[in-house]
Amino acid sequence: MKCTYLSKIKRFVKEKYGAEASASIMKEAWKIYVEIIEENGAQSKLVRMHTHERIYPGIAMFKAMTVYGISRAESAQFLIEYYRWRSSKMAKFVKAFVSLPGIYKKVPGIFTALTKRLFNEESGFEAKYYDTDKKEMRIDMLVCPYYEICKRYDCAEIVPGYCEADDVCYGNMHPKLKWGRSKTIAKGGEVCDFKINIEE
Question: What are the domain boundaries of the chain?
């Protein structure tokens, strides 16, 4: 079974906790990861993009670290920092793409289309889309499976890592694009209010 999240985090666990601890934690994480997948049965490719590659490995790592004796707070912070690092890699790609001539003007529309395709009800999300002009995107995420699933597995404190990864990835896309979000469900908000504005 493959999982990019678990494969790449091993190096960071080893650097922080040593080879012996890393071996134990990663063995436990893979065991929990497989168990969670088996518990939840067959899922569509779209759902697996979120669960198998992001949500379940985060849960598995958190539980494996706490089983090893690392505090919940330290485990959550470690995973949040790891996901910031993962997002920083994607941020470079996004920034390079948006820097192409004229692309920044299309970003609000691109984000709306991608959200409707990848973060829809079929994949466990519920969203409210606002009618805006081409210079703005406004979406309220009403239900987020990242939060719902992590809450169900008693590790909601890792969810802000997924939220902050968005800020890392999209916060500095282009000088004329303003990425904004005043609240998230993971941090106590009733919705996640996504906004992108073109500021000429």
Answer: 4-198
